[in-house]
């Protein structure tokens, strides 16, 4: 019975991570939009493109976690998710950034959302990794 519960928890955490990855990928293009392209390409445009890639990467790693059940593979996939989660946080803050004006939508909405999504991704991944480590 304990093994079934562990598998169920693994699937639940993987689905949570998958959903957060989808949100990180879609947010800059939907509900937490970055600035429109104009004469000048803003920094937030490049942040959105990289966040799309990172979110898709997290989604694919989450799908692999659901399909591949071996503990060593799970830990390796968790490492990949952790690295991508940290990147979700670093891209709008350190690596590329968003527009400089605090009144810009990307600065007031996109950046905070990505920070929260990345932090939740990292937290869920850490909890799942600790659970996996204790089990195996």
Topology of this protein?
Elements: H1 2-26, H2 43-67, H3 71-95, H4 105-135
Describe, in plain words, how this protein is organized in 3D.
The chain is mostly helical and 136 residues long. It has one domain (2-135). It has four helices and no strands. The chain has helices at residues 2-26, 43-67, 71-95, 105-135. Helix 2 runs antiparallel to helix 3. The longest helix has 31 residues, at 105-135. The chain is elongated and about 55 Å long. The two termini are 16 Å apart. The model has no long low-confidence stretch (mean pLDDT 92).
Overview in brief:
Helix content is about 80%, strand content about 0%.
**Extended strand count:** 0
What is the 3D shape? Answer: elongated
In terms of per-residue confidence, which ranges show pLDDT below 50 for 5 or more consecutive residues?
none
* Beta-strand fraction estimate: under 5%
What string, H for helix and E for strand, traces the elements in order?
HHHH
Percent helix among the residues? over 70%
Largest sheet: none
| Helix/sheet category | mainly alpha
Cα distance spanning the termini: 16 Å
Number of domains: 1
Question: What is the count of helical runs?
Answer: 4
Mean pLDDT across every amino acid position: 92
Rg from Cα: 16 Å
């Amino acid at each position: 019975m304990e093994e079934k519960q562990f598998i169920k928890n693994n699937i639940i955490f993987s689905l949570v991570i998958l959903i957060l990855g989808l949100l990180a990928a879609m947010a800059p293009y939907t509900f937490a939009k970055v600035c429109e392209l104009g004469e000048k390409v803003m920094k937030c445009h490049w942040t959105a493109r990289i966040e799309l890639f990172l979110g898709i990467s997290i989604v694919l790693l989450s799908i692999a976690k659901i399909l591949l059940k071996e503990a060593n593979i799970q830990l390796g996939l968790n490492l990949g998710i952790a690295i991508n989660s940290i990147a979700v946080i670093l891209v709008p803050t350190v690596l590329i950034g968003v527009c400089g004006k605090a009144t810009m939508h990307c600065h007031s909405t996109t950046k905070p959302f990505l920070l929260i999504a990345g932090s939740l991704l990292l937290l869920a991944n850490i909890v799942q990794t600790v659970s996996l480590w204790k089990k195996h």
